[in-house]
C-alpha cells in the first residue's frame, strides 16, 4: 500500500518538478526583466483552495500563471523600498533540501541543529561576541527583540516567569527606534508607556539625556531594564554610538540590546562603513536579520545573547514528553526550544549555510560595501539633479525630496505620487517615509543586483516623473 | 556588471540544481529506506562555515554527504515519536517557488498575501469559524498561543498595550495541557503561577472543578482571563469537552482558546474521530499546526481569532515608514504585520496551498482517518502481545508499557531502552513519556506513509527488543 499523499506517479512528478525548476532558475537569472506588478483583481478567486485541484501538470501551470509573476518585487535590481533583501540562487538549493529532510529544529539529534549552531557561531564571531555566547534563529528582528528583552527582564527580576512582571520597568531607545521594540515591550506586558524615547541628534541617541533619564527614573522608584541601541535606523540609516551606550549600560547596570536588523552587517563591510557598528560587541544581546543585508530568502533572523545561561533561563521548560537522552533521537543537547518561543521550528540555517558555502563570506562583504557606495552615489546624484537630501547618507539609506522648493504639503504629495508612478511602471521601487513633516522618497539599498547604472536610471526616472506631474 | 552573489555560470548552476533535485526526489520516494541515523561525531566540524567554501558541484557534494543523510527521521513510515509530520512531495514545489518569489509576508501588495488569506479562509471554514474571522500563519502552535492569549488579555484589559499587564490575571487548563500555554503566559509577563491546572478525568478537564475555580478566583479579587481547552493532548491524545468549556466560557465571560496543534484536524476526519473536536467552532481562538497532521514541511502553524477587530487591536502599530496606500506596492490592506509578532515573514501559505491543490482535501481526510485507525490497531496489537496500554487510544496516540508485570522502575528502564534500541537500529521511532509514574513507549501517528504492516512490524520489533533486554 502506498500513501495517498505521495505522488501516484513519481516519474510524472519528477518531470513536473524539473520543468518548474527550470522556470524558477530562469526567473532568478533574468530578475531584471521581472519588476513588481500588481496582483490581478481576481487574485482572491484565483488562489481559492479546491477550485482547481488536480495532480500533475496543472498545479505547475497554475504556479506559472498565478504565482511566479506576482512576487513582491524585491528580487529586481531597482527595488529599494522598505528594507527587503533580494534573495539568492542558493535559496533554491536550500528550499529543495529543506523540503527533503523536513527537520524540526525545536530539538532532538539531527544534522540541521548542528548546522544552526554553525551559522550562529559564524555570526557570533562576526559580531565580536565571546565564545559560548548563545543564539537562536527566528523569523526576524521583531521576534529576536522579544526574546532579547525577555532575557533582559529576567536579569532584572528573577521571579518573572512564575510571578509575572513587576510594575515599574522602563526601557530606553532613540526617538527613531524601530517599532519592533515598542511591540516587544507591549507583548511582554510591560506596556509602551515604559519606553522612554531619547531625543537624538545627527542620528544618534543623546548620551547625556539617556543617563539623566535613567537616573531620574531610578530616583522615582522605577526600574530601568534595558537600553535599546540601534545599528541602522530604519528611517534614516543612522547608527547610535554603541560604545557610548555600552559605557552607560555598564555604569548604570542596565541590559544593552542592539537592534541591528540590517546595520549589524556593517561588521563585515569595508571602511568607513564598518566602524558605524563599533561597540556592538559590548552589547548583552543583538537582534539581526539575514533576509535583509545577507540577502537570503525570507524569513531568517537571529537573536544573539551574550550569556548562554541567561538565555536558557529565560525560556527553558521541558516536560516529560520532551525529555532529552544521552543517545538516540532524544539526544542532541541543547535543544533550541529551550531558547525561544517556538517548539516546532523550520530550517532557517540551511539558507545561510548554503549561501555562505556557495558564494563565500568575501562576496557578502563586497556586496554590502557596494550597497553603501551606491547609497552615497545616489545622494550625490540627488543633489546634482537639484533635488534635496532630507538627511545625510551615512550607510545604505537615502531619503530625499524631489522638489525642495515647494511647500511641505506639495512636496509630500509629489513624492508620494512619484513613488507610486515608478512602482506601477516597474521602473524602480522607492518607499516613502516622513522626515521633518515631509513625506519623502526613501531608498534602502540591500540589493546585491543593483548597479551604478540602476541608480542613475532610477533618478532619471524620478526627474521625469516629477516633470510629468509638475 | 553582474552581481557577485548570482552564480557566475548559470548553466553550471542549473545543472547542479537539477542533479540535486533528482536526488531529493529519490530520497523522498524511497523514504522507507532512509530511517533516522545519528549524525556523525564530527558534525560540528563538518558544518563549520568557510572551511569548504566553493561554488558549483562541491556544495552539492557536501549536501549529499553531510546534509541529506542526517534528517530528523520523521519522513520514515515507522516514525511516530513526539508529534512530527512526515512532509510531502509538494513541499519541494513550494520550496523552489518560495525561493524564487522571495516574498515578505509582513505586508504590501503581492500574490503571497492573497494566497495566505486563501489558506486561512479554507482553514476557517474547516474549523467552523464565522466569515470575517481572522488569522495569521506562524511557526507553530507555541507562537499562535502567544498571539491568542495577547488578544484575550486585551479583551480583559483594554489598556494593556500602553500600561502593561495588570496584576491578578488567571488562566485555566487541564492538567495535561501542553507547556506551550505555560510558556506563553510566562512570555506575556503574567507568570505561570496564574495558570490553574484543573484535574482531568478520562482525558478531559473537569467542568465543575473549572467553574468552581473561576468563581473562587473571582471572589478573591482575581481576573479570570482565558480558558485553554485542548483538542488532542500531547501525552495521551485526549480531547477536552469543548462544548462544555464553551458553555462555561460564555457563562463566566472568559475567553476560550483551544490548543488544537494536531487534534483540530479531526475536523476533517471521518466518524467517530471527527466528533472529538465538536465545539471547537465556539472558541474565541484556535492554535493549530499544518506541519503535524496536515503533513507539510516545517514550520507552519496558524492562529485563528474569531473577532478580526480584537485580533488587529492586539497587534496593529504601523509608523510612517510602513504606511499603506490605495495602490502600488504599499497597497494590499490588511497587512499581516498588524496581526502578530513578526514584521518580516516568510511564505508558509505556499506549502499548504501546493499540498491541497496537488493532492486535494479528500486525501488529507483519508490520511488523518487512517492514522486514527492505525493507532487503534496498535492498541489492539499491544494487548494481543501481552503488553499494556497506559491510557485508552482515543485518537492517534498510543502509550504502552512493554512489560506491565515489572515494577514501575523496571518498566521505565525497559521502555526507555527499547525506544533507544529501535531508534538506533532504524526499525521504528517511538518517543517516551511518563504516565502514572511509568516511563512508557508512545506513538503519535501523524504519518501519511504508515501502514498496518508498519505497525505490526514495529510491535514485533518491540517484543524482540524486550526479549533481548529481559
From TrEMBL, chains A, B:
<dbReference type="InterPro" id="IPR002129">
    <property type="entry name" value="PyrdxlP-dep_de-COase"/>
</dbReference>
<dbReference type="InterPro" id="IPR015421">
    <property type="entry name" value="PyrdxlP-dep_Trfase_major"/>
</dbReference>
<dbReference type="Pfam" id="PF00282">
    <property type="entry name" value="Pyridoxal_deC"/>
</dbReference>
<keyword id="KW-0456">Lyase</keyword>
<dbReference type="InterPro" id="IPR015424">
    <property type="entry name" value="PyrdxlP-dep_Trfase"/>
</dbReference>
<dbReference type="InterPro" id="IPR015422">
    <property type="entry name" value="PyrdxlP-dep_Trfase_small"/>
</dbReference>
<dbReference type="InterPro" id="IPR010977">
    <property type="entry name" value="Aromatic_deC"/>
</dbReference>
<protein>
    <submittedName>
        <fullName>Pyridoxal-dependent decarboxylase</fullName>
    </submittedName>
</protein>
<comment type="similarity">
    <text>Belongs to the group II decarboxylase family.</text>
</comment>
<keyword id="KW-0210">Decarboxylase</keyword>
<keyword id="KW-0663">Pyridoxal phosphate</keyword>
